[in-house]
Amino acid sequence: MTWRIGLLGASKIAPPAVIAPAKDNPDFEIVAVGARDPDRARAYAETHGIAHVVGSYDELVRLGEIDVVYNALPPQGHAAWTIAALEAGKTVLCEKPFAMNAAEARRMVDAADRTGQTLMEAFHYRYHRVILDAEALVRGGTLGRIKRATAVFNVNIARSADELRWRAELGGGGLMDLGCYPIHALRTLLGEEPTVVSATGEFEGRVDVKISAELQFPGGAQGQVACAMVAEAPNATLTLEAERGKLEIVNFLAPQMGCRFTTTIDGETTVRPTDGPTTYQAQLAHLGEVLSGRATPLTGGADAVANMTVIDAIYAAAGRPSP
């Protein structure tokens, strides 16, 4: 079976995230795009060879010619349009961050449960062999008990009136766009839900330019996550310090763009494989496995609510300015 995907929004992320991977995956086809600006939607469709163009989000989610909705709208539009798509009988792959807050995330997950539709959060890094292998090492006890876990994602985001990441009302901010990854990665590898001990941030209005937080995991590990939208150089590094040694992944977010994955266990350092399909190819392949009934989603559901809960708690601890 070929699942037909409709794009909710003429987004910048869709070409690498779903359009290109779908061309290499016979289980999927991009067949429609819907945007508020009809001219933009038509130009986007022409550029990417998309057959159907619709003039509204509502028309897109109800379109009979599609099976899957890819929601790449700003976070402000995730809850309402994801729920609308689920209620229209569509599977939804929703971009991160999942929602504006944990309360919205719960409503989205409740809608998926109520309708019986699949809802996944597009944490593409989660499906790559690097994170899957790291998870297996931790679960297998190879490192011993984890003592400290740290993850950071810094990348310079140019200021612009059109850049959603500099607009808090649309769901922008460093923690929402960047920091959601380190939080998710540490939660995934440790398999536990942390408590936020403290957090500090630098804000421009309600937009967090930089933010960091100290976490405590139930099993005893201390954690730290950090992100910055103003940075001298990109950095996406994850480190686990454990009883028997250390695990480090440089560029845990997109190993296909260059990655170093090493473990030092009982004094012996090993450079581990980082090859394989791209994170986006792996993500779409996993969606196909889920839709075929051969796998359960690795993201979405309670996991998505839990990640937004940590984001909410970090903002509260950092004293995010009120509107």
Short description:
Helices cover 34% and strands 27% of the residues. The chain is built from 9 helices and 14 strands. The strands form 2 sheets. An 8-stranded mixed β-sheet has the order 8-9-10-7-11-12-13-14, covered by helices on one side.
Question: What brief labels describe this structure?
Answer:
single chain; 323 residues; alpha/beta; eight-stranded mixed beta sheet; six-stranded parallel beta sheet; 9 helices
Detailed description of the structure:
- 34% of the residues lie in helices and 27% in strands.
- It is an alpha/beta fold.
- Helix 6 (129-139) packs across helix 7 (174-190).
- The chain is built from 9 helices and 14 strands.
- The mean pLDDT is 97.
- The strands form 2 sheets. It has an 8-stranded mixed sheet with strand order 8-9-10-7-11-12-13-14, with helices on one face. Strands 3-2-1-4-5-6 form a 6-stranded parallel sheet, sandwiched between helices.
The proportion of residues forming helix, as a percent range, comes to: 25-40%
The rounded distance between the terminal residues' Cα atoms is 48 Å
Strand order of the largest sheet: 8-9-10-7-11-12-13-14
Evaluate the radius of gyration: 19 Å
Please report the total strand number as a whole number.
14
- Run of helices and strands: EHEHEHEHEHEHEHEEEEEEEHH
Annotation field: number of helices: 9
What is the element layout, followed by pairings?
Layout: E1 3-8, H1 14-23, E2 28-34, H2 38-48, E3 52-54, H3 57-62, E4 68-71, H4 78-87, E5 91-94, H5 102-115, E6 119-121, H6 129-139, E7 146-154, H7 174-190, E8 195-204, E9 207-216, E10 222-228, E11 235-242, E12 245-250, E13 260-265, E14 268-272, H8 279-291, H9 301-318
Parallel strand pairs: 1-2, 1-4, 2-3, 4-5, 5-6, 7-10
Antiparallel strand pairs: 7-11, 8-9, 9-10, 11-12, 12-13, 13-14
Helix pairs in contact: 4-5, 5-9, 6-7, 7-9
